[in-house]
Write a structure and sequence with these properties.
7-stranded mixed beta sheet; 7 strands; Glutaredoxin; about 210 residues; 5 helices; 2 domains; alpha/beta
Length: about 210
Amino acid sequence: MEENKLSERVTQDAGQRRSGRWKLFAVLLVCAAPLIASYLSYYVIKPEGRTNYGTLIDQRTHPMPKLSSTTLDGRPETLENYAGKWIMVKVGGGACEQACQDQLYAMRQLRTMQGKNMDRVERVWLVTDAQPIDTVLIRVYDDMHILRVKPEELSKWLPVDKDGKLEDHLFLVDPRSNLMMRFPKNPEPARVHKDIAKLLRASAIG
């Protein structure tokens, strides 16, 4: 009799554990559903003739590292501080010649072009050296995040076009802090805007 009761209890415990695992899985699936839906609607369930301009990045091969980045005044801060938003990222030295300034301007315009969704987008300039940054640039783009980071940390994370450099590209990070897209050197702003706008419309997060 005791053996039967023990067997029943073991069976019940096993059933409860299985039920608990399924409930946990269901909760995780519900939390991830908005982002999964945005990826599927944009990249899988495509109307005929629709293509993305930016290059889709496989997050499994380019996971975000724990960057040892800091603000200009030396406080530790990373891209994960802006999780929950879509993040446009550019990389470059502090000297910021004309090509760099063009990218900063393009990022600001691309965010503004999102209209009512612009607050869902953050802009980050990852500075890869100790060069001082022109105070005029800092004032002009005072709503953009500027972080200093070691270039070797970025070269292991951010993929570039063949024969390209990190400074050539703008990158897009999704609200779950996954690297998602890379835009080409000297991109067409209208086409970049179109990609970002579609993602914002398709996504219920960020």
